[in-house]
Amino acid sequence: MNMAQRLLGHAPSSQEETRWRLLQAATEVFAEQGFKAATTREIARRAEVNLASIHYHFGDKAALYREVFRLPFLNECNTFATLDLQQVSLPEALRALYVWLFPPGAEDDPMLQQFMRLHAREDGDPSGVLGDAVVQAFRPNHEMLIGLLCRELQLGEADDDVQRLSFSLVGLATVYLHGARNAVEAYAPQLLKGMPARETMVERLVGHAQALIAGEKERRTKLHKERT
What we know:
Order of helices and strands: HHHHHHHHHHH
Distance between the termini: 61 Å
Radius of gyration: 20 Å
Largest sheet: none
CATH topology of the largest domain: Tetracycline Repressor, domain 2
Helix content: over 70%
Number of domains: 2
Strand content: under 5%
């Protein structure tokens, strides 16, 4: 319930507590079994609530699954999307992005571990029920990153190369979390073990990202000179 209290800003009521217990139990069950094999009965059992509570709070298993995927995008978990672009420096903004994508304390937070496991499972065995739920949930982050890049490149609006750069910056972190996670654990597990290693990873990601942005600035400056 600590996460629930942080997100709500107050101690959860009995109904809110039931909802959060269901979300926590659902995250565990979906991460362990996948969407298709998971049952609402098992989720309710782990949450220690009656089966009807799932239908009352979420409707059905698919809606509950989509809600679980929305959790990491809530403001308490995702400070990047709420940054003030008029005030924040580039390193600070990038650090907020990578701390969200690559949480230094993930090993000490069972819920974060389950989220990462769940996303990896969805990548390997798509449930078919998410639709554009994750795309829409990620939109504020994407728009914030596009705004940051336009600011740094002094552009009024994003072009295709800004879009390419934005996905490359996100990809720097997600390669460790999803597609290549098994390879990283097999070849260089020390990169992911312990908070100091993950904090170092965030700082390196910030440095890599700044280098990519600087390279795009240089490319555009060179292209501009060639055309004038």
